[in-house]
Amino acid sequence: MPRPAYKIMDDKELYTALVAKLSKDFSLEGSSLPVAADLTVIKEYLVNRIKELMSRDFERFVNSLYRIDVSESKVQEVLHAKDKTTIPDKLADLVIERQLLRLKTQLMYKQGKL
Question: Which residues contact 96 (CB under 8 A, 6 or more apart)?
Fold first, then answer.
């Protein structure tokens, strides 16, 4: 059984790498994600950032999702859900999931496993 992406690195390395990726892709000028001790804090901050981007610069938000290659069909499914209040939370889950997969792939490539 393959190990989940989040078990390939220790937690501190994982969160540092995840924060760096999310900060690059989703932070507005002059702000950055907190270096968090756990995924809950990172997700909470990302949910707030997604809300802000969706309301202030939706095009930039969509471009960010495209750039990090979040599944378009999954994004469409979330955006068309009946419960609109959960959209930022579900989008944050998709973004984190994709970023963790990217981290795993990069690490495996560096280790010569790809």
Answer: 18, 22, 39, 42, 43, 46
